[in-house]
Specification:
Two copies of one chain form a homodimer. Chain A is of the alpha+beta class. Chain A is 41% helix and 24% strand. Chain A folds into two domains: 124 residues, Sandwich (Jelly Rolls), CATH 2.60.120; 84 residues, Orthogonal Bundle (Arc Repressor Mutant, subunit A). Chain A binds a DNA duplex through α8.
DNA sequence: GTATTCATTTGATTTGCGTCAAAGTTTTCT
DNA sequence: AGAAAACTTTGACGCAAATCAAATGAATAC
């Protein structure tokens, strides 16, 4: 480890004046509690595009709050098949897969240059014994991940290609919108192949579904740029029943 | 609610002399700590075959430790498609999906008459601030669920029908073996349709895969009874690479 | 600025699983 | 015990997505 390479020297690392606070930290703390919270963030770490924040099998030490950038998490089977298990953006917490065995079960790779807050898990555990609000927050974050994965299982087990892609796009744009970005335009940070891996499809199938949506006037696509022209049509594809 | 129907009166509810303790509770506690742990289990509750322990949308109050019986958990999409997200047996903890929103996101249905220990989550949170061992255990249980679901995503996204069924059987028999049962024989508690839902397959496909394994002499099947004759062959199907 | 690599699109063909159907078996109900 | 309902198996056929293939476009390196 070469901390000087990964740590941002001279930058005040503090949640209390971070504009992502409401996304990744619990709310409703007083000044004293907020100060303690600040100390959980040991340091920051930059991860270049294509690099791994952590890799499957590595010792688990910390959770990471994404400050900037975009990640994918993936598991690899023994015979080399890769499954993307999620895409994560600013304000989201990753690394919880490592708690159960003290080793990471998946890898987190930056899809664009990124910066994360390193939060040693033992510190989180210590402080969350003092601060019930933090304790509850940690529980909620893990529960949210369980619920998210339930949703992916529904996608993979029950939905057809176009339904999966519609759900994927709606989910992405909704999360970006929650971060102050457009609710109709987005630039994909991942390849068709990575989308396909996440959705249990081959890249050609993903490409065809994009083209189909485009032909139908539901979206406009130019490579990684996507504009959602008819969100209701997408929602209808994702969930036919609601629109009888 | 009719507590008298669900509570087992006159039974001493205590983890300290429960033979499943090592499966669902943390180890290494002294007498005093063990006694506190006992108090987390508010009561027990019986669930008849086919009944729901909790249902999607219901208010979340407690986690449940399965004492006897067998459950499935499932989510239902708005248009009515059901996805089985897991099968749970004695010693396993369910209900963590409800923490994030204070409402359950999935339903837990008993596949045979069952008995669970009801553990109010607020009590768990309170006590785990006192007992770091319990705190760590709660984190591990949730992390284990995340990791399990990662594995299911790999199954659903990358594997073919027979690989999925092989993985399913190996996983089931391994968990049963950890509970003192045979590592080669099992009686399925779920229908072909429920297996199919979990594995993202139709019941006919599951049935055909069973028949194929049977014809090849890998397993013996008679309805719900399954005997694994050639476990290595199953492992090879699940994970071709390892056996070059 | 050109070459090389990587990503995407689109077409032709194949295939694994789904769908439909019917018969057999087991369990449940009366 | 007998009838009804639920579950399972097996076969024939269809289709959605995978595979194979080739061309185009974009990004990166030299």
């Amino acid at each position: 480890m070469q901390p000087t390479l990964n740590t941002l020297e001279g930058l005040k690392v503090a949640c209390s004046n971070c504009n992502l606070r409401e996304l990744c930290m619990p709310t409703g703390f007083n000044k004293d509690e907020m100060q303690k919270l600040d100390e959980v963030v040991e340091k920051r770490r930059r991860v270049k595009q294509g690099e791994a924040l952590f890799s499957s099998g590595e010792a688990f030490t910390s959770l990471y709050a994404i400050r900037t950038g975009f990640f994918k998490t993936c598991v690899i089977s023994e015979d080399g098949r890769e499954q993307v298990t999620g895409f994560q953006m600013a304000g989201e917490i990753i690394g919880m897969d490592g708690i159960v065995s003290d080793h990471h079960n998946c890898s987190a790779v930056a899809l664009e240059d990124a910066e994360v807050c390193v939060m040693p898990f033992s510190d989180i555990e210590n402080l969350s014994r003092e601060l019930p609000g933090l304790q509850r927050h940690v529980h909620k974050i893990m529960s949210r991940e369980i619920v998210r994965e339930n949703g992916v299982m529904m996608l993979l087990g029950n939905m057809r290609a176009e339904e999966r892609l519609a759900a994927f796009l709606l989910n992405l744009v909704q999360r970006l919108h929650a971060r102050g970005l457009s609710q109709s335009e987005l630039v994909l940070r991942m390849t068709r192949e990575e989308i396909g891996s996440y959705l249990g499809l081959k890249l050609e199938t993903v490409s065809r579904a994009f083209s189909k949506f485009s032909e139908e006037g539901i979206i406009e696509v130019k490579q990684r740029y996507v504009k959602i022209v008819a969100p209701d049509a997408l929602k209808k594809i994702f969930n036919p029943q609601t629109y009888y």
